[in-house]
Amino acid sequence: MSTINGYCARPSIRAGEAVQLHIATSASRFRVDFYRCGAALEHAGHAEWPGRTADPGTFDEDWQWPAYEFLVPPDWRSGVYVAVLGTEADYRTPSMDSREARILLVVTPAAPSGRKILYKIPTFTYQAYNTAGGGSLYSASRVTMRRPGGGVGGPVKGLPDPYDAASPRQTFAHWDAPFIAWMEANGLVSDFCTDLDLHEGRLLYDGYRLLVSAGHDEYWSAEARRNVTAFRDAGGNIANFGANTCWWRVDVAPGGAGLSCDKFPPGASASTDPDSSYGCPDHWWESEPENALLGVSYRNGGGHWDGPRAPLGFTVTDGDHWIFSGTGLKTGDVFGREAALVGYECDGAAYELDAVGRPRTTGQGGTPENFEILGIAPLPPDWSFPAREPAASPRAATLGLYTAAGTVFTAATTDWARLLATDPQVATITRNVITRLF
């Protein structure tokens, strides 16, 4: 049976420009079918080429597989596209997720589109967990982005999700695809970008009012963070429907060829000392706490990675707030508990209780003093906590927002997207936030 796999030279391309696909196959000829992932999979294009073989590379060096140039049609809508690779003439499988024979490609607009929402695809995080070539940023300090995988098409580090075993957690299919499908099915039309685009300073000033991220957006470069902060300071809004966001700082090789992240002090590694990463300069919270941008940090939250967890939902702290409009929720109600909304990782802010028992942020760790905690979920002791030192307050997932020049909302849990299609209250809150902020 013929083998085939591939990757892109970079994870995003403007409509109307040529993308370099690098593909190795044992077949004499192969085909590529492109599908846009929205409310449904939409077949968008097709190409066929003669096949060439190549050996797999290592996780830290460009694999340099044979290159094929595909001109992205100028009329392709901005979106996430999956290239499905096949070696039989009748091959066509419209599946967005696979551990082989798939390539993820984000198409950005050729020119400002007039749309107000920009959705960020976390390709840095996808690549951090990608183990193609025998390693990831959990076993080494450097990985190449020019290898199979990174969202689709490659092996992934991590335990299976007991609440959704259809795809690995650190892939496009797991959180981003359901969120995007829900948005488009509900008429919330956006353009798309990758973190590499934001790292390079592209797109944020093309008229967008709202930057959206969902699921697990863990790895950020200093340049991307600086550009997103400037977007907020110029009045741009941010809606983060995820958690463990902006936890690790990465350096990006020229052209987006690779990522580096020094997690482990000299002489230590994940295999020799699982706690050795703490006290490491590439944690954002040690140099420039992510709270200053997002309001929250994984440092004040935690994770439960292995197997089912105690079902946790958010207790509403202000039922009159506009994010709860139309949900039927009142102060003191809990939503999302039955489906374990809080987890597998979550973010929090240091807080204390006021005279009437409502949680208020203390401002510690860089959280803006006007950050409003609108939902809270104290974490049980069997969760793993990312910082070993005692916390300034009880650790809890803290859903909320604050306003500087722009407004920043956080859902504070990775699993928010998982409930969009089944929990009307989660869906209504999501619609309220997006429609208010764009």
Description:
This protein is globular. The model is unreliable at 272-276 (pLDDT under 50). The chain has seven helices and 25 strands. The longest helix has 14 residues, at 424-437. The chain starts with a strand and ends with a helix. By secondary structure, the protein is of the alpha+beta class. Strand 21 and strand 22 (359-361) form a beta hairpin. Strands 11-9-12-14-25-24-23-18-19 form a nine-stranded mixed β-sheet. The protein has a five-stranded mixed β-sheet with strand order 2-8-7-4-5.
Structure summarized in a few sentences:
The protein is α+β, with helices and mostly antiparallel strands and 438 residues long. It is 13% helix and 30% strand.
Low-confidence stretches: 272-276
The number of helical runs is 7
| Fraction in beta strands | 25-35%
What is the straight-line distance between the termini? 50 Å
| Strand segment count | 25
Overall SS class = alpha+beta
Radius of gyration: 21 Å
What about the largest sheet? 9 strands, mixed
**Average of the residue pLDDT scores:** 93
How would you write the strand order of the largest sheet? Answer: 11-9-12-14-25-24-23-18-19
**Globular, elongated, flat, extended or rod-shaped: what is the shape?**
globular
- What level of helicity do the residues show? 10-25%
